[in-house]
Amino acid sequence: MSALLLAPWILLALWGIYVGVFASSVTSSADGLRVQNFLRITRIPFSAIADIRMRYQLVIETTEGRTLTCYGGPVSARSGARRSPSDDRPAAGSQDAERIIDDWHSALEPTAVPAPVRRMWDLPALVALIALVVWAGIAVAVVGAG
């Protein structure tokens, strides 16, 4: 019985580690990029990308004028030294960033009409959080009643 009362707290900690460390990612497909920053997922068609550059992380500017920093994507290998803004290309050895930029360049069509950028929540992770919070609330109620 005590394991059932302790488990939600451990699982909540593991959920937080998952969301904070592992959930964020950038993936490229034939039609665009899928960027997940913590619990927020953004699908960006290649036609809606105005620029991709490398700061400390991958930064995507959309044709809507929005800027999206990719927390789970490739990171810059630059040292602490300041570099000029024109030097915002991927550092040597950042094949993932180079591949994403190459995918974008190869998918560009001069006459393409920008498709809309879609933003959504990571529903499975949110449902898991709600279930864990309810379970933790039940555990607190059981311990308080006992």
Explain what you see.
Residues 79-84 have low confidence and may be disordered. The chain has helices spanning 2-22, 95-107, 123-145; strands at residues 25-28, 32-37, 40-45, 49-54, 57-62, 67-75, 118-121. The strands form two sheets. It has a four-stranded antiparallel sheet. It is of the alpha+beta class and 146 residues long. It is 39% helix and 28% strand. Strand 2 and strand 3 (40-45) form a beta hairpin.
Principal-axes geometry comes out as elongated
Number of beta-strand segments: 7
User: Could you tell me the mean pLDDT?
Assistant: 85
- What does the oligomeric state look like here? single chain
Widest β-sheet, arrangement of strands: 1-2-3-7
| Percentage of residues assigned to helices | 25-40%
| Radius of gyration over all CA atoms, rounded | 20 Å
Tally of individual helices? 3
Gap from first CA to last CA? 12 Å
Q: Give the ordered list of helices and strands.
A: HEEEEEEHEH
Largest sheet: 4 strands, antiparallel
- Uncertain runs: 79-84
Measured by DSSP, the beta-strand proportion falls in: 25-35%
Secondary structural class:
alpha+beta
